[in-house]
Amino acid sequence: MSLLLCLFAFFFGSIPWGYIIGKAKGIDLRKTGSGNIGATNVLRTIGKKEALATLLLDISKGFIPVLLVQLFYPHEKNLMGTVGVLAILGHCFTPFLKFKGGKGVATSIGVILAYTPLAGLITLFIWILIFKIFRISSLGALIAFGLLPLNVFLLNYPYEVTIFTFIFTVIIYLRHTDNIKRLLKGTEPRMGDKK
User: Fold this and answer.
1) Is residue 133 predicted with pLDDT exceeding 70?
2) Full-prediction pTM beyond 0.85?
């Protein structure tokens, strides 16, 4: 059963909702805007409603697999964390798009909202706050997830949960290496900037 949950997490996480929504509008997100299939690029290139749909669907890709583990194995924090990692990796390296996926932020938010609800809400709040102030989604994600392991530790979650949230953060940072370089150079585009 646990193996099935792991497989489900990866392939459910692999569903490229942003790409599907873009295609329904006649747009290939991989060739438009930032080239990313996530909600930020959907917002930039298609519209608010489509971006919101992408965001919620991508969050569900992380939330639902972890929730299923909680239903069947309520005390297995390691399995929940593993399933969370697999859902995020599925989004980042989807086999449906030749293993080229998104940055993993929304799916990771979904994972931590199910895995560490209070820390998840704090992370979501920080992400939205930083984005609202600076209009740079990547900066919000990097700050929010950079603080995630510390928040989990301060909230006294079990030790293994802190380890898994650190893994989530590492994945986010590895997927944002180009963004980090642009942020350091001051060339990361803000939402609303014209190309």
Assistant:
1) yes
2) yes
